[in-house]
Amino acid sequence: MKGKSNGIIDRIYRKKDIDRVSAKIEMLGSFAKMDTYTFLNIRLISTIVLFLVLLYFMEYGYLFAPFITVLYYYFFGHMYISEPMKKRVKQLDRDALYFFEILTLTLESGRDLEHSLEVTVANVDTELSKEFERALYEMNFGKTLIEALNDMKKRIPSETVNNIILNMTQTDLFGNSILDTMYHQISFLRDKRILEIRGEINKIPNKVSIISVVFVVPLILLMILGPFIINLLA
Known about the structure:
Layout: H1 7-12, H2 15-26, H3 36-57, H4 61-108, H5 113-123, H6 127-138, H7 145-153, H8 159-174, H9 178-233
């Protein structure tokens, strides 16, 4: 999702840097708030404006402006790419179990992988389903299913989902049992989900302890020491 080419950006950034940013934004899917050139333009212009404002209006701006500007430059990328990508990875991982369970049920009815994906995509509306829908759409332009799925992996930031897609394509390519592969993958996703839930449960006591220290302990101290403090003030 590069957007309209920009001569200034093309002269400032190397092509491989633009392609790297474009690949990251492509992996954001529906989480992307802007295309590549819009992102690079806004980051560049806002960084320059911030530097000039700090330089001219901040005391000792010549000392702090470079440091703050560099921090802002990297924070901008973190805020608009890294954080949304983490959220999308979690979303794709959550979508994976349900999507592949439906796909497996469809495969059990005797359909091949391509037709099973078409049926699953038509009945499941998730972030992951939209990526498979795009892959199937690309087949209308001459791509094989394997090629479309391999290209899809470039748009998926989740290692879990990419590993499943890899196993699917390898199984389909070599003519092995796709159902056996999907059974193993679903079992893996279920175990992974259970471990994640256990991890969340294990964090609860720590959260309760922090809340107790911050709110409960001061309240108890106030109740104990309150009368003594009142007597001193009286």
